[in-house]
Write a structure and sequence with these properties.
Blueprint: H1 3-32, H2 42-64, H3 70-91
Helix pairs in contact: 1-2, 1-3, 2-3
Length: 92
């Protein structure tokens, strides 16, 4: 495998948690919990969600040995939503 191919594999591996984290934070800060999350910067909340989402993706790969299993998606989506839930519990 060439280095460029390895880079594309890595980027495609981490892209779903990063994009879903951006969508989740945008919806949470923009529409749903606008006032409760007003004190938290968008970038910080996205970084926390994205980091845990990528760690969940890695954990799912280690547990199942292959990427793309539905329980693996459940793992990283659950971890991805933890920072948002934590901030909402603290704010509310």
């Amino acid at each position: 495998m060439s280095p460029l191919t390895a880079l594309w594999h890595l980027l495609n591996f981490i892209a779903p948690p990063l994009c879903v984290a951006a969508l989740l934070v945008a919806l949470a800060k923009g529409l749903v919990w606008r006032q409760l999350l007003a004190g938290t910067p968008w970038r910080r909340l996205w970084a926390e969600c994205a980091l845990l989402g990528v760690l969940g993706q890695i954990a799912a790969l280690l547990v199942f040995g292959v990427e793309g299993k539905l329980p693996g998606y459940a793992i990283w989506l659950s971890l991805l939503s933890l920072p948002l839930g934590w901030r909402l519990l603290k704010a509310g």
